[in-house]
Amino acid sequence: MSPTKPSVVIIPGSFSPDYFYFDIVKQLQEYGYEAQVKNLPSASRLPPEQPATMYEDADFFRGLVEQLADQGKDVVLVTHSYGGVVGSEAAKGVLKADREAAGKPGGLVKLVYLTSVVPEPGVSLGGQMGATLPATIEIEDTGFMRQTKFEIGAKECFSDLPLEEAIKWGKKMSKQSAVSFSNELTYPGYKYVPVSYIFCEQDEILRPDFQTSVIAGIEKLSGNKVDVRRLNAGHCPNVSNPLGTAKVIAEAIVGA
């Protein structure tokens, strides 16, 4: 990475509006980073619109990285949950090394996975999670998914918040494209850039054994050691502990 701080782009988790991450963005900006978060196409459309695929999500965030890189900036993608699939796919064509070889400035220099799903090529989020997918998700005839049974879902998603507050956040979750969970990864971006993984120890959605297996899979496929950072938090530390999460993200970026 260059001596100047890289730009940070946050890729949200499924069902999660961009404002779920605004406090993290603000804190990263206070640390001196250019940081932003944008809505996933798969989590921001509504019927009768066509549900977006994971590939459309990846194309969207790849475009953001490309815009920043064209300005000569190094970029770090920070992904959350489902966003790990998107970020891995979005790395194709925007790696700093590939852009340098083509005589272009900037590019993707690191992936930071915040309790994320990170499959191998040919596997989707649904394929990697299997039976661990939350039972509170309901697929509508429109091709969108929605969260149901808010009390149960809130206990899982926001397990480190008081139940009443967790339910409020659960009711703010958006619809999510169903097909996005079945789209298979085609490009393992984690093979080609340094990787940090923020392990959420109290996660009730991606439980510790699942996160451990994800890290092992990245290391096996990439042949590189993953920098693991631990956070005593549930599945959505962006909501329950945004300042602490931003601190760990910043530490992961610089390798402190």
TrEMBL record:
SUPFAM superfamilies: alpha/beta-Hydrolases. InterPro entries: AB_hydrolase_1, AB_hydrolase_fold, Sec-Metab_Biosynth_Hydrolase. Signal peptide: none annotated. It holds the Pfam family Abhydrolase_6. Residues 8-246 form the AB hydrolase-1 domain. This is AB hydrolase-1 domain-containing protein. It comes from Exophiala mesophila.
